[in-house]
Request: fold
Amino acid sequence: MRPIYVSLLLLLSWGNSSLCAQISQDSLRNAVWISGYGYSQSTNENYHVFFDFRGDSLRLDSQIIQNSLVLTYTNNSICDSAGNLLFFSNGCSIMDSKYQLLEGAERINKTGDAQDYICDELQGGRYSNSLLILPDYNSHTFNIIYTRIDFLTIAGGGTDRLYWAKVALNERDELEVNFIDSIIIDTFLYTGNLAANRHGNGKDWWVVAPAYSSEETLGKDSSYYMLHLSKDHYSIHKNTIGVSTDRYEESTGEAAFSPDGTKYARYTIHADLQIFDFDRCTGTFSNPIHVPIVDQADTSWAAGVAFSPSGRYLYVSSTSYIYQFDMLAADIPASKTTVAVYDGFFYPVYQLPTRFYQCELAPDGKIYVSCPGGKRTFHVIEQPDSAGMACQVTQHKYILGYPIAGGLPHHPNYRLGALPGGVCAGAGFPPLAAFSWQADTLLPSRVRFSDMSAYEPAGWLWDFGDGAISADSNPAHQYSADGVYRVCLQVSNAFGVDTVCQWVSVQTVGVDEASGDANGLRLFPNPASDVLHLDFPYPSEITWIALHNSIGQTVFENKSLVGAIPVGHLPPGVYVLHCRQRNGGVYRVKVVVQR
Reply:
């Protein structure tokens, strides 16, 4: 393999086709995530959990896959333009959607005698945020950028290069590895904390890789390598900015770009939170902000970071806490708000704590937060563009069929387009309209809409299909009657206008009906005035029940099914009963208390 000696920043550039067509093609690239934690050596069975965002809401599926990749902390996947899984990787090998190893990529992370530690058959890659998959512009080729630890050349860890594999979909719709090379760096790199951002021309990619604090830097380094990837070419330069990290933070924390690509945030356990402005044309950082955070993460090493869909809010997960920062505040560090404190919930069976680890903004506009280690649950920030506690952090929302490790797949904003005005050798394009919606769990007739439009819309006009309109970017609308409504979103910027419409079903739950599949759960009487009785054919399958009022406050909670809930002391009104099953299912039943 041909070594290339340069200084570090990746830019991808190819083709002259329509940028809007490319954004549309890439909009569903992260629609399916594969995670997991567990492997049977005797049966070659791998335990996977699939996150499917192709519908109106998240679908979770736990499966045992024979002879699949072992997935722990290093994992990432990529989909075709329709959101169907193409291939995935654990940083050691690459496998297609039929669980066949790609020829030439059976062992992409070769490290000589050290490879069995880095990519051992029982573990897979051990470092989160250490692998990115970036589609070429106007092409069926994908770039895989990843790191490794090379104990053969670097005492104590670290890596002296990024690795670059290219996977192409040929004319027979077969995946093949047609190029693998290594990119030599002039010093060492972290094994994780990789983050990618679309170049300002709308075609290329920037990849940011933090420098590793080696003995040569006396255990301190504040450098970032900026890789500019342009189809089959790359260039590299270095930024030195901000607070130095130390070598004992190796493989901790997370880095992410804001959805509009203008901000970069990185949180590690000792250097804490750092925020920079980012120039998408030149690939340089500026205006450093440092936020010291002293808490349990300083010793427990569980840390993550993610931006809200609009980029207004930044979330930092820090072992036992989740913090929110307002990126529009005059004093960003002073805007720190604690929006979640670990509630003490323990992982079933083994009684392990389910604290907060890494964060990932998902296609449904929510932020998913993993737990340290292999746990059968994760956390959800339901409304990340809402201030303070209104962001609604739901801890351990689902109980999964199999555990997942702390490392979530890490994706850039594939929908980000060129900067306006043709700067960066790009061009200005009208926005591409898209949105998602979700009924409020406590008040189903209230629907929350999330703008998912590409290419920097500056104006929004919503038509909710019942005569009401809104100019908010992410509105919530209260419908007065059940029905199916044609909701349209028109987005605009200096270069044009685009409109998209969807049919939205509004079905408020009757006072004696259950939402979704109640699977035998019966409540009576409903309405209730004194006692609400519950009956379920398999009570041992219920792991938690809670009754919430109309503003989400918990008025009753128990960790198993009970036969009756006293409601005589509650004010008259509408409540929602939540029942969680061992298989991860959650039933939500509307309850009316009257006198």
